Amino acid sequence: MKAKRLSPGGTIGIICTSHVADVKKYSRIVETLNRLGYKVKLGANIYKDTYGFAASAEERADDINTLIEDDDVQMILFGGGESAAEILPFIDYNKIKKHPKLFSSYSDGTSILNAIYTQTGLITYYGVGTGVFLDLRYYDYMQFCLNFAEGYSMDQFMKDSDWKTIRGGQCAGILIGGYLPCFGLMLSNRYFRYDQNKKYILFLEDHEKFSSVGAVSTCLAFIEQSAFMQSVSGVIFGHYADSIPDELLHCFERFGSRNNVPVVYTDDFGHGTKHAVLPIGMNAELDADRQSLFFI
If you classify domain 164-295 with CATH, what class do you get? Predict the structure, then answer.
C-alpha cells in the first residue's frame, strides 16, 4: 500500500517521537517547508519534556494518532534521538490503514517506520527527518521531491557518491532496514514481523560517532544469527565515516561471504551530509556489480 504524494500546497505534520523540540530550530524547519510551498501542522506535545528527555509515550503517540486522523495532513515527518520504541504500543495502526499517509524519518525513527510497515503494509520512508530542513542541500531536496512530491517519479535510486562493491552479485526483494542498532533490536519486537516466504534487501547504517567497528560487528552478528537472515537476499550499508576504516569493510565482506549475499557500501544515506530516501516495503533489485538499485 502506498500513500498519495504531496500535492502543491499540501500539509505536512511534524511530531517529535524521540526528543523535545527546540523552538528556534523547529521555527527554521517550518519556515523552510513554507518556502517550499507546504503548510505545516505541529504536534501538540512536541515541546513537552514530561519524561525529562521527551514527552510521555502516550503524549507522543497522541500526536501521531491525531495527525493520522487529520485528512488535511498528507505527510508525517519526524526526526531521531532516543526512545521512539516506547510509543509503538500506543500507535493506532488501524487508523493508519484507513488514513494512509507518507511517513518519513531516520535514525531512532527506524522502529516506528518498520512497525508501521509490518503492521499495516503501508510503505514508509527512511532517510529524511526534520533536521534535513535546517540546512537543506540540493541532493536532499531532490530526494524529497523524487519520493514525495506530486509530479515526480523514480524507478532507479539516484546516487551522489561512488558506491563500493563489497561482494558482487544480483538480488531482488523487499527493501527493509534502517539504523543498525535499532533494526537489530526490532527483530525481537512484537510489532515487527516479516514473511518467511519472501526475500528482503536489507539496508543498514551506523556512524563512527555512535558505534565502533566492534559495535557494528556485534549488531551484525545478532542480525545474522536471527531467523530473519534466512530471508535476506542482499545488503546495502550506508555512510559510516568520511574515511572508511579497512576493518569495517572487512567486517562487511565477511558478513556477505558467510551469508552468500551481495553487499554494497554507499555514502548516500545515513548520519552523514547526504540523506537519500529508501522506501521500506518497496520491491527492488540490487546489482552489486554495477552498483545500482532499481525500484519495481
Answer: alpha beta
